[in-house]
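# nightly structure sweep
# worker-07 picked up a monomer target from the shared queue
# config: single-sequence mode, recycle default, output format = structure tokens
# input follows
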Amino acid sequence: MKKAHFTWIITEEVEGLLLRDFLRFNQHISRKALADIKFNDGKITVNDREENVRYILNKGDVVRVFFPKEEVSEWIKPSPIPLHILFEDEHLLVLNKPPGLPTIPSRDVKEESLAGAVIHYYQRNDYSYTFHGINRLDKDTSGLMMVAKHRYIHDLFMKQQQEYKVHRIYKALVHGNITECKGTIDAPIARKATSIIEREVSSAGQRAISHYTVEEQYSNGALVKIALETGRTHQIRVHFSYLGHPLLGDTLYGGKREGIDRQALHSSKLRFFHPIEKREFTFSSPLPSDMEKKLEALKIENI
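# output follows
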């Protein structure tokens, strides 16, 4: 089984630090992850010898961390669903998710999911990882997703998410005529009191910010580009319903299923800094066929 492991050569700048402090504060390995290494089948070596985290580092020491095997949740059913992989390295997958596939299964139903497809892929390639989604998409939303292969890289990317350093662009088809061709929706979102699924704009909610640009406007709808500053559940769907322009096909938030049988929302662009490779990556995904077909219909209706 292939496990995650990392190597660092100690420089003069960190000489004299405790091994524990170097791993916690310089390499950002969480206290929980260090405990997991200690009490499960991971290990930490210095110059190929297992050492206690109270070891004092010397310049030139070679520190290696071997993370333990990860346990897969029993409610994720491995599924032989083909993955559309745009990028893969030792730490990360960038995938193009089809509509109609949940990112993770419901706990009470072992349904097919993207998580299950990823676990099946890991098992087939002898990887000892579980599923770590960095950005999640609703079942009927298509497009780009990042999946961390192990807990360490997931933690690093989640810190970036919290600092709004993972940049996400979406494309949506919305109802109506948007008078402002560019704008920002800054409206807090909370769970609706009468539903466990539906969200709404509410002063009691968490702050949510979406920036949008109208790319094409037609008599019966518009193609909109949206940049997320925050990542609340159903954020784009709630914000555009709040504006009076629900997404086409999004019956939960007031949209109509006319020529498309899901919310017309696609994750079209991702830009992020890879914390291990130390460089920026950008990925794009074109509109899927059902959204293209509906877009063409809007153009024809506009003539």
